[in-house]
Design a protein that fits this description.
- This protein has 17 helices and no strands.
- The protein is an all-alpha fold and 281 residues long.
- The chain is globular.
- The relative contact order is 0.08.
- The N terminus is likely disordered.
């Protein structure tokens, strides 16, 4: 626990940089890196190892994610969360390869000095209720990382869903908290996160939160393709739901395009005809 508390400050200090980088639309470019022999990696400090392997993972070196998995426990509490590591984890989280995204999750937890334990989770849940907004949104994001790695996952989903449903209009930071609760749910990546994300996309008063929920269903986060496909029927309903505005209709169409790979016009009838024909069996 002392390690966790000791690393919170450095993680929070980097948060503004992380938040500015992370976007489903802005994906950092990372230069291709040559293969590095294991013996050469062993001579490097943990920071250099993590950076080199993340860069290789983003550059589609198939061995890099396994190397990260085998080394990440040795890095815990020994990494500095700086702009370089932030850029690399952001690029990894936006990879189309889920193994690379998982590598980013593991490195972020290691850089935060967090053990994957109940005590760490208890501390994060407490911080998610903090009056310090930066600390709160860091905790919401990091809860998603922990839930993804199997640390009391359903409890994490319940906590994040509760924050997502807390629409306190008198709190100017509440919209931002809901946005990061949605991002946290996307990171968890279990089937149980789909319903709260769909509800947020439909019901949240904030366009920002609705857009992030839509993107979480469509492409960001840790949901599998099979899980995303289960959201398609409800997204079809959203395309012509009269209670939703035109922008949310557009996000529903974009999510359908991202999930299915179909290039159809933003026309509900066209999408329903496609869905009916593709599921006729």
């Amino acid at each position: 626990m002392a390690l966790l508390v000791g690393n919170v400050g450095s993680a929070l200090a980097a948060w503004n940089h992380i938040a500015s980088l992370f976007s489903s639309h802005d994906r950092p470019e990372v230069a291709n890196s040559s293969r590095i022999a294991t013996r050469d990696l062993d001579r490097q400090q943990p920071q250099a190892q993590a950076e080199a392997l993340l860069e290789r993972a983003v550059s589609r070196d198939d061995n890099a994610p396994d190397q990260i998995t085998s080394r990440v426990d040795q890095w815990r509490g020994r990494l500095k969360w700086d702009s370089r590591l932030s850029t690399l984890t952001t690029a990894a989280l936006n990879s189309t390869d889920m193994h690379v995204r998982t590598s980013a999750v593991e490195v972020e937890l290691a850089a935060s000095g967090l053990t994957k334990s109940e005590s760490s989770l208890d501390n994060l849940v407490e911080q998610s209720n903090s009056s310090d907004h930066a600390r709160k949104i860091w905790a919401l994001w990091t809860l998603g990382l922990m839930g993804n790695r199997g640390v009391e996952t359903e409890r994490v989903v319940e906590v994040l869903s509760s924050h997502l449903q807390n629409k306190d209009k008198n709190n100017k930071n509440n919209e931002d908290s809901r946005r990061w609760a949605a991002e946290g749910l996307a990171l968890v990546g279990t089937a149980s996160t789909i319903t709260p994300l769909l509800q947020a996309m439909h019901n949240d008063p904030s366009p920002l939160v609705r857009e992030r929920a839509a993107c979480s269903l469509a492409q960001s986060g840790m949901l599998t393709q099979e899980q995303r496909l289960t959201a398609v029927p409800q997204l079809l309903n959203y395309t012509d739901d009269p209670s939703l505005d035109a922008q949310t209709h557009a996000w529903a169409f974009q999510a359908l395009t991202d999930i299915t790979g179909q290039r159809l016009p933003n026309d509900s009838a066209a999408w329903r005809n496609w869905y009916a024909s593709s599921h006729s069996d």
